[in-house]
Write a structure and sequence with these properties.
This protein has 312 residues and is of the alpha+beta class. The chain contains 11 helices and 12 strands. A 9-stranded antiparallel sheet has the order 3-4-5-7-6-10-11-9-8, with helices on both faces. It has a 3-stranded mixed sheet with strand order 1-2-12, with helices on both faces. The longest helix is centred in the N-terminal third of the chain and has 15 residues.
Length: 312
């Protein structure tokens, strides 16, 4: 049986047998959502953003991920600390790492998976594992959050996944033309820009062990980032979002502050707002301003290109 078939059956069982999962996924249909568009410097719409008012995600958005807090709590991704109702499908990567794929009990998306190493090891972006999973899970997108940059369990390596239609950026990037394309990697297509109003590195390749994916992963190992990866029509699509800061200066629960903590989902176009007031107040300029504050600067992107792309 294919991995995706095992996952489909797992989701069906968990929705039926685990009341918490049943209730939380049913609640998604009742969440308030609204759409806004980001416009480029020419005034043209360039990226769609979906705002979601999801009170159940407050525990994640407001999570204390300091080393002291992490050390003081049991790891919720380790088997011994998970509810008896929580089941898993196991999968081993080509490099030998054993993962468990599970239904996320506190979802953002109608299909929301957590994919974690069975072994308790720190968060790290195994880019080839992302690519392999993307191919084995058709119509899905694999999401990675760096430690301190959206990962609520930075002490335990994990990905998340949803369907590609849930993240607007996936389709927006797939339809890009050759404007801004860099071909220094031969048959690999690479873009490095902020035309979606957030700095990103977008790579298309038909080669699994792509050198450009490896190089960019190594380049961003120290410079923290989020990442997305999906597979369509024989092509891997991988996106890295280089980051300077984890949370915006306006982050907080006081008056005039926003309880938002952008991670891979937000960079993919879905902004989760646990508080109703934030859901109602966030506008296009707020989103653009936060992207600009948290992401690499233009000069840093140029350095990244010069150091890890041009030399190849």
């Amino acid at each position: 049986m294919l991995l995706i078939e095992h996952i489909d059956k797992l989701v069906e069982r968990q929705l039926h047998d685990w009341q918490l999962v049943h209730d939380n996924y049913a609640a998604l249909d009742k969440l308030l959502t609204r759409e806004l568009w980001l416009h480029n410097d020419e005034g043209k719409p360039c990226s769609r953003i979906i705002l979601q008012h999801n009170p159940a995600r407050a525990r994640s958005t407001a999570a204390d991920v300091s080393p002291e807090a992490i050390a003081a709590r049991p790891c919720f991704l380790c088997d011994e600390n998970q509810p008896a109702e929580q089941q898993a499908v196991h999968w081993r990567s080509s490099d030998g790492r054993l993962y468990k794929l599970q239904v996320n009990p506190y979802p953002i998306f109608k299909r929301h998976l957590t994919i974690s190493l069975v072994e308790h090891k720190p968060q790290l972006c195994y880019s080839y594992d992302m690519m392999e999973l993307a191919q084995l899970l058709p119509n899905h997108v694999i999401m990675y959050n760096g430690p301190g940059f959206g990962a609520s369990a930075p002490d335990h390596m994990h990905f998340q996944a949803t369907t590609q239609d849930e993240l607007p950026l996936c389709r927006e990037l797939e339809t890009r033309n050759d404007d801004g394309l860099d071909t220094c990697y031969g048959d690999r297509n690479l873009w490095m820009d902020n035309r979606s109003m957030r700095q990103l590195v977008y790579i298309r390749t038909k080669i699994f062990n792509s050198a450009v994916i490896h190089d960019m992963s190594m380049a961003l190992k120290q410079a923290k980032s989020n990442a997305l990866c999906w597979y369509n029509d024989g092509m891997w699509h991988t996106v890295f979002f280089p980051r300077n800061f984890a949370r915006p200066a306006c982050y907080g629960e006081g008056e005039g502050q926003l309880l938002v903590s952008p991670a891979a989902a937000e960079y993919g176009g879905v902004w989760v707002t646990p508080r109703r007031c934030d859901f109602e107040s966030i506008d296009e300029q707020t989103v653009i301003s936060i992207y600009k504050e948290l992401s690499f600067w233009d000069k840093q992107m140029k350095f990244l290109y010069d150091d890890y792309v041009r030399v190849n």
